[in-house]
Amino acid sequence: MTDFRFTRRQFLKVTGVTTLALSLDSLGFLGGTAQATEKVFQKWEYKGWESLHRDEWKWDKVTYGTHLVDCYPGNCLWRVYTKDGVVWREEQAGKYPIIDPGSPDWNPRGCQKGCSYSNMMYNPDRVKYPMKRVGERGEGKWKRITWDEAIDEVCAHLMDAIQTEGPETVIFEPGPGNGGWIHLMAGFRFFSGIGATELDVNSTIGDFNKGVYETFGKFQFCDSVDGWFFGKLILIWHMNPIYTRIPDCHFISAARYNGAEVVTIAPDFSPSAVHADEWIPIETGGDAALGLGVGQVLIAEDTYDKAFVKEQTDFPLLIRSDTKKFLREPDMTGAGREDQMYFWDTATNAPVKAPRGTLTLPCDPALEGKFTVTLKNGQQVEVRPGFDIFKEMINRDYTPEKASKICGVHPETIVRLAHRAWKARGHVQVLVGWNSAKYYHGDLMERTMCLLLALTGSVGNKGSGIRGWNESLFDGATALMIREREGLATVRQVLSMRGDAKDMREADPEITDEIVQRELEREANKKRMGMVPPAFLYYYHSNYKQTWENKAWHCPTMKRTFAEYMNEAVDEKGWWKPYVRPARDQNPQVYCFLGTSPARKNRGWWKNIYPELWKKYKFIFTVETRWSTTALMADMVLPGAGFYEKTDTRFPTPHVPWVTLTEQAVPPPAEALDEWEVFRRLAERMKKLGEERKFMKYTGRNETEIDLSVLVKHQTLNRTNADDTLDDALQLSAQLGTLPEGTTIKDLRKEGIIRFTNISKIDIIGKHLATDIKPDEPIVPLTYHTAKKIPYPTYNRRISFYIDHDWFLEAGEGFPVHKDNPKMGGNYPLLMTSGHQRWSVHSIWITDDVLARTHQGRPFMFMNPEDAEKRGIKEGDLVRVHNDFDDFKIHVKLTAAARSQDETRPGQIIIYHAWEPYQFEGWKSYDTAIPGMIKWLDLAAGYGHLNYYRWNWCIQPIDRAVSVEVEKA
Amino acid sequence: MAEVEANKQLSPEEKKRQEELAQQTVAIKDELRKTKRQLAMVLDLNKCIGCQLCSMACKNTWTKKEGREYMWWNTVNTMPGKGTPKDFEKSGGGYKVLFEGKVREPIRGNLPTRKEFGDFWKFNHEEVINSKFGTSVLKATNPDGTAPEWSMNWDEDQGAVGIKYPNSFFFYLPRICNHCTYPPCLDACPRHAIYKREEDGIVLIDQNRCKGYRFCLESCPYKKIYFNFEKLTSQKCIFCYPRIEKGVPNACARQCTGRVRFVDYVDNEQGPVYQLVKKWKVALPLFPKFGTEPNVFYVPPLAPPRLDETGKVDLSKPRIPLKYMVDLFGPEVEQSFKLLQQEMERARDGEKSELMEILMAKRWKKMFGPFDKDPETAV
Q1: Which of A541, A546, A821, A930 could form a disulfide with A603 if both were Cys (CB 3.0 to 4.6 A apart)?
Q2: What pLDDT score was predicted for residue A551?
Q3: Which of A781, A743, A753, A733 is nearest to A657 (CA)?
Q4: In the prediction, which pLDDT does A477 show?
Q5: Is the pTM value of this prediction over 0.90?
Q6: Above 0.90 for ipTM, yes or no?
Q7: Contact B190 A62 (CB under 8 A)
Q8: CATH topology for B30-120+149-378?
Q9: Exposed, middle or buried: residue A549 (CB in 10 Å: 0-12, 13-18, 19+)?
Q10: Interface subset of B 289-308, CB within 8 angstroms of A
Q11: Which domains does chain A show, CATH number per domain?
């Protein structure tokens, strides 16, 4: 278009012809209403009406807000605008300071869910009063009761359970839906205070990167998201940041403009492939083969970081060719440590002890070769560095051509990815979510991702590594609990001065602080916390047993029956014995879920949980803000406070290393109460009831002594409200040096966010970061290992690519290998994959009436048009998805982005979660057809880092790549 | 349609009167179009992740009440797709440019229905809560009791039709009112209720003058105007003028967490908008063919390479067909892609690229020209 504009003067020169031509349409536009037309000649003040919208952009009050939900990374700072006593809207505060001058700033963190909590607060499904079921469970008949009645009834049930079956039969299931520190802690404190069983959240939802943990001895490390900007090759692999990391995506796009390459690996042309430099379409579940293929190229072309591999990984450790086990000190000396391994010193041509107390090398260890050592018993055996064996294996099984046959990725693509990785060496960044974690062989996939990092030396640098989870920057809350139990002196006490730590150091002088603390945590959990993976509750008290024992749905490489492994793990070896809570002879009695909707999230809930376990519970209750499906299946629903109705902070993660405030913009609606207050009332009542029943003290089966007379003190941490508790925690963190000196709640109220100044010394989860916070750089984890040469907390103290646990060797998974997806659900031609949806965090926002209109407002699945056509399915059709386990109905959206089926390979249907089951016909959600298998190797333990402690090394439910067929409903 | 009126037999007096009216109308329209400065927005589609934060930011600020509930002044759609209102691309409108560009005659397109916009749904929460489990399903209903068949973002993430895996493609296209230099809505309004603000070129519908004839809805080729069925007026994106007046960027722009949107006066040569639109010419208007000269510009979307039958990368043609991009952004799009790719390559080779620096937008506040105020303190 030209820049031509005519002035009024010019117009007047235009001839009548023009006007006539105009009259054809324009006069038609005038609607033939001469009257209306006449008015245009009147004087008119156009600006007069503009006050309409100016007056709308006004408010009475502004407060800070964030969303107390396990969104990861979350912690976005918002300003909440209130007018006429109602929260009108929220807008990102946009006040994050510049951290690294070389990187983009963090503003304006937030997403459309955060922007809609003001709607969700007033959505019609809000719980406003204590409600009691009056019909049958799930019948939809509710009665409003008073708080006193509610508290009395809950406590009577709790006390009955404790007195008749034992405190372990009270099951508390916390969840990610209410990640407030102080208010959630109130729930934890209450249930731990009465000796209840708490279900481990990671083991319940499956957000545990098993393969990362197997390799690094931990998965709880990650960088701050501004670190992504410094990646040179960003591999989006089993993650969909465009849906799930909305506030962080700009660091990826900026990195790309800064010269980084972005490669997305996914079976479907995922939304996160849209802005990639390359999308690698992969056979669903073929990721380990791809990773090994890339590794093969790097090694075969001799382009790998030898120095890193030798110093940081277990690849130089010697493995006996006869037993496939590491060469150990007892082999060589007849005594000594089982976990003392050896290198082959290329200078002296002899085995040398691999130091356990440092990663600094004592020699130049061989990576390749076959050597002979003489054992203590005189036997001569062949030993080889792990690398040598691994190299032989990948050269044999995972050349680009062979890997390509498994994973469906063109060999040239595999080679190109290897070249890209080498070009970006030191700065390869794997963005993995918890998608791989939910595949049957997800650990194998993750182990190969870690392999690429090791081969390219991409650990411990800005813009490198792999992301896991970590939530313990705010150690003030942890410190509060220690202080309450053992006094402030203990909080400050140097770890090495503690008696129990001393014993450990005497037994193993080369032990690291990190390992000491992990072991202390393990002991503390066994003794006090009562947190357990739910697998044993499920196996001994629910129908999961039958599901898991279906050998056809396991990997064919599982040599024995599932029951055999379970028995060995629990009874013969005793690995999991302390975690069988409630015990097999105890009947589960009371169940409380908080910030979660188990009827939605438990895989195959209708078949696995509902028929037996759900009916065993004598009483089921929750504190909720909205009517979830599980709330509707409960006995009592107590109204909790929304995110802008109380003071709290959400657990901060290194991803966004600030403590972030939410405060009360408006009081909770109707009779709703904040959770801190609910649990305080419950604690008070329990104490009274104990007095009435003369049952104040009792002992749990783990010999924990419970004293109800201190329950209130225990639960409230000696404070009368949540605000003061938060203030205590902030001040403690400041004293401990993790927040700026002198920080109090006043500072937080003023600023909304306060950046952490250092990593916690007292919290093991924080400690897993193994780094320091610098004021002007992203947080880069694991630098203690890479720069200070402190060993990793793995069994062999190094980044571990070889696990010589008997079960792993039996399974052929000593080294990472590829294994096909088992046919979970039966032999069907389509695989069901998933991921978090865009429009809700878990199911918290999924019923929001406004956000629902930004999608179809109903559950749907993506399907390839060719696969649909074969089945006579059209766009928008309602279909029945079924397998041997169960079925459900859902609407179809067709897209060629979904992987299509061919003669040999399965097609793909994609259902992003989490919908409420009550959005599906018969309340059968897509989880209904997911059996929720677990890989038997999850039960392996007794091997250094492969031992349970909270949120770590736990049994994982599987829900990706379940086999299904689809037909028109 | 319009022809019905035009075909009427007119007396010479009537005809003369009509001609006069037409002349005066055009003169007035010209006045209403006049601006001293023009605000503009550039949206970088290589950053847009389709999250709808902009849509919600706008919704919560402006369209939660008084008959605006069904409206989405800001929308994001997956392209290719039918979008919102459904099939908006084919709904007609725009200008007929006559007499070598001297006269722009609005074209009357379709009047989108409420349902094509997605309408306003109600959900049966009460019923679900109070029914036996499994018997009642939570579902949406249109105000007329029907089940929804479209929404603002119904065909999200479906993308190209008639393409086979693995060569599907899609991207996200956020849209607001384009605040066109030649807004057909302005010309089509018999009430002269639509005007461009002199100081900033924002196109507004005077809610006191508007009588709800809806010719503007018909003539807008982008279909970004909604009819308020309660107030009986037409309404649309107001470019957040109450915020702009206080030095605060638009809600959609300031709240965009993907940092997609730049806002500035188009004549500010130092600002990113000028740099991207005028200097580098990588930012282009949507559908320039309609001749409305939008003041919203887009950096067109790159895509990963397509694959041949063997699964090998095929660089002989782009994943997103060029023809489709030309349809959307005009023939200039080819040059825009070339520049983007060339500068990206330079960045990969470790060279400094001014264009990449602008697009990277390291400092958030600098994306908004003079509009750097915090809303909390602005009022």
Answers
A1: A930
A2: 97
A3: A753
A4: 83
A5: yes
A6: yes
A7: no
A8: Alpha-Beta Plaits (3.30.70)
A9: middle
A10: 291, 293, 301-305, 307
A11: 830-929 (2.40.40.20)
